[in-house]
Amino acid sequence: MIELGNYNTLEILRDTSVGLFLGDDEGNDVLLPNKYVPEIYEIGDKLTVFCYLDYDERPIVTSLTPYIFRNTFKLLKVVEVNNIGAFLDWGLEKHLLVPFGEQRVKMQEGQWYVVYCYLDEKSFRLVASNKLDKFLNNETLTVEVNDEVNLIITRQNDLGWDVIINNQHKGLIYQNEVFKKIAVGDLVKGYIKHIRPDHKIDVSLQALGYVSVEPAANTIYQILKKEGGYLNLHDKSSPEAISARLQMSKKIFKKSIGTLYKDRKIAIKPDGIYLL
Q1: For the chain, which residues score pLDDT lower than 50?
Q2: Residue 213: predicted pLDDT
């Protein structure tokens, strides 16, 4: 079966004036237009190509790499809005449609949005949706507290930042626990901090417990070396000053300099910390 919205490894069946026809093991074939045909090939060779629908709604394959695949999330730019919906640049000639009914807010040309790409069962077309929650499942969880996870930052709210966890679950990073600059669409590592009885998930950008201290201590140590052995931060410094300079919480900072002090790598003085 040739799958729309994904890569397929297909056999070269025949060469025609419009391109190569490729086929699968089930007798299905599809056109690879001339512009995407490799310079060197033989009938019977296998090619890995991406399948989508052309302007006439016919399955077609390309050697181009799309920015998003079927059943995945991605930050994409709106390049056109008309009476059908919004159209996204996803790296292919034909843009990806977001119908008006799949827009959480009315999309604007030139703006970027995190979307989900899927196959619409009624029209048999690849489309995208900005209504992300309906594609996320927190009823059956595949993560546990302290797990390291992959995150996509989706939007900012009054509490903090909504995130997608491992392309499966919805989570939240509280604003007062963000110690570095993040933006919608960022792909970052995170850690499961707390799972509530209703399966809402709290996420941290920092490793939890003592696991986070060693890399933080090394960060401080390397900055001290670059700054000539002095850093004008200490255990009385404000959380804001520490976050702005080191992108870590005051709690982690204090534990880290405590570790460096015990290892006799630094001296802690009223005006800051010094490299020994």
Answers
A1: 210
A2: 65
